[in-house]
Amino acid sequence: MPKPPEACTTMAEVREGVDALDRELVALLATRFGYMRAAARIKPTREAVRDEERKASVIAAAVAEAEAQGLPGDVVADIWERLVEGSIAYEFTEWDRIRR
């Protein structure tokens, strides 16, 4: 179990914590993409996959949460833009795969 950030005194400890957190983030992304597969299965039309209003809402919520935790909102907005666009692309691929 890695040390919390505030308890780290060496770069090895920092790197251990970052590596462990990256594994957790990938596991969370796997779950998020599972929801994209579910959305692809549920949405009745291919056109329904892209929802710009929902995209804006998801990014705004992430930015608000980041800023509430003292993180830079612009950085989080950039990350979530890529995450949401990647999720949409994945959902399109899954929508097409399911309906072949």
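Next protein, fold it too.
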Amino acid sequence: MTANELKDIISAGLQCEHIALDGDGRHWFATIVSPEFEGKRQIQRHQRVYATLGGRMQTDEVHALSMKTLTPAEWRAEQPGA
């Protein structure tokens, strides 16, 4: 799977303001910014992203996905000069 394919899958199932992906086709690190994360704990945010992937994690299409999940306000606060 390519980064663009993974990005398309996540953004099709989750309203995202920003997605950055780094990986080798099986192992991925994603930074995902979504207003849908408001009021949710990290585990709930990750579960929401995993839900967009459906069975792709079980079929090994995506072997590993590490995530940094942020709300838009959290994302802005992390940006230089914010």
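About the second fold: The chain has one domain: 3-74.
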